[in-house]
Amino acid sequence: MAAPRNRKPGRKPEATPGGRRAASGKDGREFVAEAEEILELMCTDLCLLHEQRHGEREIDPDLVHRLFRSAHTLKGLAGLFGLDALRHLAHRLEDVLDALRLGRIDGRSPVVGLLDEGVSTMLALVSGFEGEDATRDAVVARAENFLAELERALAEPTGASPDGLAAVALDPSIVRALTEYEEHRLRENVGRGRPIVLVDATFELTSFEEGLAEISGAVRESGEIISTLPSAAAAGDGKICFSLLVATDLEPSLLARRLDRANGSLSIVHPGRPARATRPADPAQSPAEPAGAHASAGGGFDASSSGAATGPGAEDRRIESLRSISGSVRVDIAKLDLLMNLVGEMASQRTALTGIVMQLSADPRTARIGTELAKIHKLLDRRLKALQAGVLDVRMVPLRQVFEKLSRVVRRLRIDLEKDAQLEFTGGDTELDKLIVEQLVDPLVHVVRNAFDHALESPEARAVAGKPSIGRIRVAAFQRGNHVVIEVEDDGRGMDVESIHRKAIERGIVSADEALSERDVLGLVFEAGLSTRDEVSQTSGRGVGMDVVRSNLAALGGLVEVHSRKGLGTTITITLPITLAIIQALIVRVAGERYAIPLSSVKETLRLEDHRVLRSEARELISLRGTPLLLRRLADEFEIADAGAAERGFVVVLGMGEQRLGLVVDALDGQQDVVIKPIQGPVRQIRGIAGATELGDRIATLVIDVSALVAESSRRREAA
Amino acid sequence: MTSESTSASAPALRGAVSGDWLALSRSAARSFHSVPTVEERRELLVVEAAGSPYAIAVERVREIVRLAAITRIPRTPAWLAGVVALRGEIVEVVDLRRRIGLPQAAVTRSSRIVVIHGDEAGIAGILVDAVRGVLRIPEQDVLPTDGRDFRAVVEMVRTPDGFVGVLDLERVLGAGDEDGR
């Protein structure tokens, strides 16, 4: 989760010499890119915050803290570029978030609800940055309105929470060193009845970061680090001492055991509620007890305001937070691609090496060297796999970012179309290759927009149909094997199969005498030039779109399918591979040529002679466990050779989404890791070919585009 | 990987061509160039297809490689010989004979693929029967042709051995379907 975000809030673009404003060019673009990235993160965090607010759950302090830092970074960035409106706004939001994290305002305060609008106003400011003056002025006016609203909301009194630090047996010097925020967290945790302990640990000066990270990690598994303070205690040469102020859900003795370190010590500064007396440890009750259960009360423990030890610390000195700033790096995706390519090439060279190892081992004269080499080869192989997995992992990002974009789109549509809809997301944690995620945004926005604009009926029409007046769009993502499936489901009017069919005939997409199944007809919505709505609306519906959606997704090796029931709703299902970079492929042979088929789409392989080939119309099919499986002969498909009706060979059962197809090939040549490369040259787009790869022997091998083949097959309407 | 192969054409040419004659002729050309001359000169790579010479602007040539196994791509025009793997890059190869309307010929030991810097920073290969050498031609010896007379030849250069057609690479590598079927 941390790595793919790759953001580094501390980084600022260089201001142009002399002028404060870099209105265009690289700096400007960098500013926009960076600001957008920060704002996206804020959007995501805000969503989480709202979830926690509404779910009556405890608001995660780290979340608020991150939001605060984002606003802060944005403020600095806006200042650098002389964007006063943005700077003011970020500044005020920073204030709100600061008040929230310090407990000065309650999470349920209406002010918190305004944060959304604040962030989207900032987004508008940022996107207006390179726009025309007129639009910029409009956005600035919007920002000012919003600020005024925010001020009004802030002026309303909010109840501040009482504090109680008197019961905490902390050295006053430590209390004084705490920042206001840390003090607030301390108070929160005492109020909740968590035991508070002070962990003293000594580290080698040269390696204290690792040691500290290790301890912090252990603590955070079951608690919170309120503050990490460099200790004044003499630590000896080359050593450094830290005190960690920790609130924990664990029995302190358990924590001590967990932090089993020779050079650390643990002292209890506040016993916490569950351990009020010298209570025998009750494992069933103590550690796992949800902290939130105690959150409401201020009683039990001294809730009188102490007020004495208000730390002056204005600076955030938590070492942990400094670490997290330097701990993530923003990386250009092109650099990751380069790494990925290198890894890919190493993978194909490894394959070549395998051959040599086998040759050496087979020859008695070189068998010993062969065995040695085989050992090294095996190790190398393992490392290479780990490296591959590591690089892939870095490229993975959660879909939540895309979902957040979608909800922004819907928010805007609500205003533009004066229509409401409920938008639900599930599976935001599902991860996909960054490159795919980027390419996915546009098609997905299109699909959701379609659902909102076209599929959902007006409230009146819904009432007549006996549906809730507000329509519902559900976007669900989940992983299925090596694929990620994204479903966009609405409860709207559904698609009218007959009207689509009629229109397709009118436009000459299909001929009137073709017999099409319902699914065939629904598949036609992905054909160019077919928009099922009669009038054209501003938002969507010019009949360009679904075909682009399909081709964009196909370029990613994905597939889009539609299921619809008239009157009940439509589900668009998008199936995508998790990554594009390195794939496992099945190598097949047809008429002497080798082809690679992505293994993720291969369900199984069969021997053709084990099955009886049946014919229906011009199609060949076999029975696979009682269901018909249509066959296609790759040789025919690619016009490589006249395949005739050979009874020998293999059937590769391909599956994409819910469609199946049996591809007949001459021979199977085993599996290999391959890197799919684009084909350069005059022809470029070749239907049915996803790219090519070099299989260790310096010969290009074509990679079959399974989604294209499957899609073609399901729409195949030969004149015969 | 493109890192090693995107460099200018000269070193790649020298390394890739069989024998040193091309490098020699190029360096000879260069020393010739150092003699102050007034007129513009054109550097052209002369290749052979079906016994006739054709010229390609040298600055568009990235490298010349010996023929590797070409993989046929289904569903493509006949003038596209297929693809080859070139240090990790997958490059389409256009059969020059087929492209200019001549029958396909068997590949021989002298067959070469001339790798061209295409548009949009991509590359493409041209399959030729042989590479003859580099010509330096004064601009006044380059004569325009009527575009309608030829499939891919846009200009003629006058050489001591006769005329050589200069290929319009955009036409040779264009996706247009003026193929020789």
* SSE string of chain B, helices as H and strands as E: HHEEEEEHEEEEEEH
Please compute the radius of gyration of chain B using only Cα atoms. 16 Å
Shape of chain A: globular
Question: Strand order across the biggest sheet of chain A?
Answer: 14-18-19-17-16-15
Proportion of residues in β-strands of chain A: 15-25%
- End-to-end CA span of chain B: 35 Å
Number of domains of chain A: 5
Main sheet record of chain B? 6 strands, mixed
Give Rg of chain A in angstroms: 31 Å
CATH superfamily of the largest domain in chain A: Histidine kinase-like ATPase, C-terminal domain
Largest sheet of chain A: 6 strands, mixed
Oligomerization: heterodimer
| Count of helical stretches of chain B | 4
Chain-averaged pLDDT of chain B: 76
Protein topology:
The complex is a heterodimer of chains A (720) and B (181).
Chain A: H1 2-5, H2 25-54, H3 61-80, H4 84-101, H5 110-127, H6 133-155, H7 172-177, H8 180-192, E1 196-204, H9 208-220, E2 223-230, E3 239-248, H10 252-258, E4 264-270, H11 319-326, H12 333-362, H13 367-395, E5 396-398, H14 400-417, E6 421-426, E7 431-433, H15 434-455, H16 459-464, E8 471-480, E9 483-490, H17 497-506, H18 518-523, H19 546-555, E10 559-565, E11 569-577, E12 582-590, E13 593-598, E14 602-607, E15 614-616, E16 619-624, E17 627-633, H20 634-637, E18 650-656, E19 659-665, E20 667-675, E21 679-680, E22 689-694, E23 700-704, H21 706-714
Parallel strand pairs in A: 6-8, 13-23, 17-19
Antiparallel strand pairs in A: 1-3, 1-4, 2-3, 5-7, 8-9, 9-11, 10-11, 12-13, 12-20, 14-18, 15-16, 16-17, 18-19, 22-23
Helix pairs in contact in A: 2-3, 2-5, 2-14, 3-4, 4-5, 4-6, 5-6, 12-13, 14-15, 15-19
Chain B: H1 9-16, H2 21-34, E1 41-49, E2 52-57, E3 61-66, E4 80-86, E5 89-95, H3 96-99, E6 112-117, E7 123-128, E8 130-138, E9 142-144, E10 153-159, E11 162-167, H4 169-173
Parallel strand pairs in B: 2-11, 5-7
Antiparallel strand pairs in B: 1-2, 1-8, 3-6, 4-5, 6-7, 9-10, 10-11
